[in-house]
Amino acid sequence: MNWDDVRSLARRTSEGQPFTLTDETRAILRRAAPQVAIPPGEAERALQQVPSAVALLDEVASRIRVGSRRLSRAIVDSANRQDAGDMDGARQPFLDVLAVEVVPHYRAIAQTHLDALDDP
């Protein structure tokens, strides 16, 4: 899972550099879209025109960024609750992530942490 190309492309466009729909940008978005739970057909439709491709890039980048922050906060919150001796409360941040997260990679990480809390 390497989203550096997406992050780089999103950063350049947010800094005002023009977005061009090249074979490379299409390949980046085709690869990344399903990794963040955007169906391939939806991605293909978006890749037909620059405005919709930019919107797709924004959505992919947002899902990566927001999901990462959400998961990071859950890990820290859970650890703090564990340190305080609240094992039931330590599960909640991961349950909260699983209730809203769509990115399969982040869901899998949250589930792994939750499963680890359930192991004696």
Overview of the structural elements:
The model has no long low-confidence stretch (mean pLDDT 95). Helix content is 78%, strand content 0%. Helix 4 runs antiparallel to helix 5 and helix 4 runs parallel beside helix 6. With 120 residues, it is an all-alpha fold.
Provide the fold topology.
Blueprint: H1 4-14, H2 23-35, H3 40-46, H4 50-83, H5 87-100, H6 104-118
Main attributes of the structure:
elongated; about 120 residues
Mind telling me the C-alpha Rg? 17 Å
Number of helices: 6
* Helicity, as a percent range: over 70%
Strand content: under 5%
Helix and strand sequence: HHHHHH
How would a textbook summarize the main sheet?
none
Low-confidence segments, given as residue ranges, are: none
What is the residue-averaged pLDDT? 95
Structural class: mainly alpha
Number-wise, the strands total 0
Shape call: elongated
Gap from first CA to last CA: 31 Å
